[in-house]
Specification:
elongated, 7 helices, 13 strands, single chain, 3-stranded parallel β-sheet, 8-stranded mixed β-sheet, alpha/beta, 22% strand
Length: 238
């Protein structure tokens, strides 16, 4: 499967995770919203293909501070190999008693041109991470180094993050509410559909703010709704 076009990614960057989950539910996907992680530094939407890191429980004879000096350490290696435009997604088994990463590694990802970092665990140095331009999502701050609880074993393999299956290359979209994982083969059609859904939802919200009832409007079961929407769309140039 080919990487989505820049146009597809740009469309996904302009829609909400709520709208995306509805579009995916229409296609039979119920389990696509990563449970737990919240955004540290609210701002523009995050979008990019997943590049993954997987942890298992730490073992005392392997996870010592000197292990960081090993260039094959999957955590360090993953940070240095995560492609430009990708989202670094970490499976820490939803155990936030130790950090998945800290500010130095997050900063390195930003400098490499990555589009975000997501973990179902916690980050350390969160005040500093909050100042980065790169979007970052975690469950809560966690100061202890990853070595105390997590052993990095694999990069760019299928993982579980927040109860969601994430395959390398799946498209991750994050807003100020959370993160959705879109199966790669659905990215283009979901992007096109949710772009149109967003326009209609903006219209509905405006009508509700003016006092309209949701009956016949949302969903648009009243035929007049569609005609009114088209008039609004022409007037608003949407």
């Amino acid at each position: 499967m080919t990487h989505p076009t820049p146009e597809t990614l740009e469309k996904l960057a302009r829609v909400s995770t709520a709208t995306l989950t509805t579009s995916l539910f229409r296609r039979g996907f119920r389990n696509v919203f990563i449970q737990g992680p919240q955004r540290i530094n609210p701002g523009r939407n995050m979008v990019g293909p997943a590049y993954t890191l997987r942890y298992i429980p730490a073992r005392e004879d392997l996870d010592r501070l000197e292990s960081f000096a090993d260039r094959d350490n999957p955590q360090r290696k993953g940070v240095e190999e995560c492609p430009q435009g990708a989202v670094f997604v970490i499976d820490s088994r939803q155990d936030a008693t130790a950090a998945s990463a800290g500010c130095i590694l997050a900063t390195r990802l930003q400098q490499r041109g990555c589009n975000g970092i997501v973990t179902d665990c916690g980050f350390r140095d969160t005040p500093e991470i909050s100042e980065l331009d790169m979007p970052a999502y975690h469950t809560r701050p966690s100061a202890p180094t990853n070595l105390t609880k997590h052993h990095a074993v694999a990069i760019n393999d299928p993982i579980a993050c927040g109860g969601i299956a994430v395959f390398p290359g799946d498209i991750m979209v994050g807003d100020n509410e959370g993160v959705v994982c879109i199966p790669l083969h659905l990215a283009e059609e979901v992007a096109n559909e949710t772009t149109e859904m967003t326009v209609f939802e903006d219209y509905v919200l405006e009508m509700v703010q003016r006092g309209a009832s949701i009956f016949g409007l949302y969903p648009p079961t009243d035929p007049q709704t569609k005609a009114n929407f088209q008039q609004w769309r022409q007037h608003s140039k949407r």
